[in-house]
Write a structure and sequence with these properties.
Length: 382
């Protein structure tokens, strides 16, 4: 069995994707240093989080999904060094589910790692992701419920740092619960990886970090436009459709590149989140967890820079953004239709055609598959 297992359980929007990219990009080097990243891809850790939380929808993700946690545990059990499991959707697990997951790996030493940021910016960023995934909930009504539901990975169960620590802290001793604060703007981006690598016991300099990610935030006009579009979408209820089309094609592909203005909730909601965030920091400080970084960095600032609220967006602004995006989408449809017709008429071998298609961005490949199906080519697949 593994000697040590680290559960990195979130929070979402706290550099989790960045850390997971470092881990998966350097999987072989980590193994050379005695650290196992089990599974075939990050998706298996996502699936495993659903199994641990008893998500009844896990079977919709594919035949392999319901057995993902079982596969990860088998790999961990066969490993002799350190193993790490990482996905932010572990965060909403109940205390009982957390204890069961720790017992499943059956390691002599288990640690829980939670990356964190201040509550105001966390909730604002997470609401935006909610809209990118098809939500129509206004910003001042998010999160919608106080109670923690392990099946719901969008509510307070994945956002309230103190609550997440209380639940996962029942499974391991307090000194093995680690809170990693996000680097301040004046600190190097790699600071978060350095903090995480120290817990793993690896040499961070041997692991290449991914290039700096482009800003993936929606502007105030763009997020309000997307929220209203979501209300009119029909038949986009599956996780694949939301990921491919709403989040991938429309939000990331068309709206994010517009680089719109940042936004906040209403002043009253900002104050609520500031007060809640301060209470969270006070509770974490008194609980005796291991904090890596400055805990005061998790306290929402006393004053925030002025930003607009999504309700302030005018119809004229929405029409301007919508017409520009529709024009781009028309260009996509024309270009991909022409490419599909040429491909259907071309004697190019299938394997070469496959290679050419793989050079397209993911969202464009999805559009191409749909267009080929409509034009009588191969069936569309997600």
């Amino acid at each position: 069995m593994a000697r040590t297992v680290l559960f990195h359980v979130g929070l979402p929007k706290t550099g989790t994707t960045y850390l997971q990219s470092v881990l998966w990009d350097n999987r072989d080097e980590l193994a050379r240093q005695g650290v196992l990243l089990p599974g075939r891809s990050a998706r298996e850790h996502l699936w495993a989080s659903g199994v641990v939380r008893g998500d009844p929808r896990i079977g919709r993700r594919g035949a392999d999904a319901p057995h993902a946690w079982e596969r990860l545990v088998a790999e961990i059990t066969a490993w002799k060094g350190t193993a790490v499991v990482s996905h932010e959707f572990f965060a909403p697990a109940s205390a009982e589910q957390a204890r069961r997951a720790v017992a499943d790996v059956d390691a002599p030493e288990v640690h829980v790692v939670v990356t964190a940021r201040d509550t105001l910016s966390l909730v604002t960023a997470r609401w935006q992701e909610f809209v990118k995934n098809g939500s129509t909930v206004p910003i001042d009504r998010y999160p919608a419920r106080e109670r923690t539901d392990p099946v719901d990975d969008w509510d307070w169960g994945s956002l309230d740092l103190a609550d997440v620590l209380r639940r996962w802290g029942t499974a391991v001793p307090r000194e093995r619960v680690h809170v990693l604060t996000l680097p301040r703007p004046d600190e190097p981006r790699e600071t978060l990886w350095l903090r995480f690598a120290a817990l793993l016991g690896v040499d961070p300099s041997t692991c290449a970090a991914p290039p700096a990610a482009a800003n993936e935030s929606l502007g105030v006009v763009e997020v309000e436009l997307l929220r209203r579009v979501n209300a009119d979408l029909v038949g986009f209820g599956s996780a694949q459709d939301r990921g491919n089309w709403i989040r991938g094609y429309l939000a990331q592909g068309k709206l994010v590149p517009r680089r719109g203005e940042k936004f906040w909730p209403s002043p009253a909601r900002v104050e609520e989140l500031r007060e809640r965030g301060s209470r969270v920091v006070d509770e974490v400080a008194s609980a005796g967890y291991d904090v890596v970084g400055n805990l005061d960095d998790l306290r929402p600032p006393a004053a925030v820079p002025p930003r607009r609220h999504p309700d302030d967006v005018t119809d004229r602004e929405l029409v301007g953004a919508a017409t520009a995006v529709i024009a781009e989408m028309m260009d996509d449809v024309r270009r991909l239709t022409r490419e599909s017709r040429r491909a259907a008429a071309s004697p190019v071998p299938a394997v070469l055609g496959h290679r050419l298609r793989e050079r397209l961005p993911g969202s464009a490949r999805a559009v191409a598959r749909r267009m080929r199906a409509r034009l009588g080519g191969s069936p569309a697949r997600e």
